[in-house]
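Example for tutorial group B:
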């Protein structure tokens, strides 16, 4: 059995328990004639991760919590007896002693500062939206005389035969409030998501956002996940996935290793800077 991998400084697992469970899982798998690839397909894990569960290689997973959850799923698949199930149910991650003195260190203060920035920006955006909606409602209830004056200033009606749009209606649509007689498509939509991740085949994903909140879930083949804001970390358990940022496809092969896609905060910053379309060069005039 290989030496257990190094755990992150902020969490730890019972390596002895993981080793005992891993050996039992390997014994059951061999007795049933299953390969590591067979187990990986059933658990939506890569072969490297299945082997890591049996040999206690913590570095194969994003964090100890994900390692423990995968170990519990493997135990259910292997139908381990109640004694094993009870020991796993009682196991859990806990703070690493070496990280206790860093709780209020520079990194913690930097994280708090980042969260406050997000809160302030969110509050400013919310106030702006409320003001825009209030202005739209006020314009909607303008006096008939003001509406007639706005219509006269708008110029002749378009040749398409549709009724002329008053400046009042234009202001309402800009504020995101439906004007009388306007279609639902005319109402301004909310802010577009940062990006879109689409799974080509079943896989698991881990996303950590700017507020340091982590999301773990599985995606079926063809299922997509909207990234509402720019992540600081993204892991996809397969290389068969498609990622777009602001509608621009991303070459995920640049971030693929060991059959997984891993993109960190610095990579996302570089991708955002290159996601904007580049204007076409102006043709020179030949005289």
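The residue assignment follows.
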């Amino acid at each position: 059995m290989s030496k257990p991998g190094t755990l992150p400084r902020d969490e730890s697992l019972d390596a002895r328990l993981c080793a005992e469970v891993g050996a039992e899982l390997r014994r059951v798998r061999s007795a049933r004639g299953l390969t590591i690839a067979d187990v990986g397909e059933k658990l939506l894990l890569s072969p490297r991760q299945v082997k890591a569960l049996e040999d206690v290689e913590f570095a194969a997973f994003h964090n100890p919590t994900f390692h423990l959850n995968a170990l519990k799923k493997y135990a259910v698949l292997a139908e381990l007896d109640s004694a094993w199930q009870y020991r796993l149910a009682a196991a859990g991650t806990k703070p690493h002693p070496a990280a206790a003195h860093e709780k209020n260190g520079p990194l913690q203060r930097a994280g708090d500062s980042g969260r406050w920035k997000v809160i302030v920006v969110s509050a400013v955006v919310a106030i702006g939206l409320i003001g825009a909606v209030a202005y739209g409602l006020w314009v909607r209830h303008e006096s008939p005389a003001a509406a007639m004056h706005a219509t006269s200033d708008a110029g002749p009606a378009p040749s398409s035969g549709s009724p002329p749009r008053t400046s009042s209606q234009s202001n309402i649509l800009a504020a995101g409030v439906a004007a009388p007689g306007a279609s639902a498509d005319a109402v301004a939509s909310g802010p577009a998501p940062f990006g879109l991740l689409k799974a080509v085949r079943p896989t698991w994903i881990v996303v950590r956002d700017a507020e340091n909140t982590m999301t773990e879930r599985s995606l079926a083949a063809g299922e997509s996940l909207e990234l509402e804001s720019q992540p600081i970390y993204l892991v996809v358990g397969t290389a068969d996935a498609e990622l777009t940022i602001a509608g621009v496809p991303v070459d995920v092969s640049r971030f693929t290793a060991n059959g997984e896609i891993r993109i960190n905060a610095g990579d996302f910053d570089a991708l955002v800077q290159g996601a904007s379309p580049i204007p076409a060069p102006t043709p020179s005039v030949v005289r």
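The longest strand covers residues 203-208. Compare this with the pattern of hydrophobic and polar residues in the output above.
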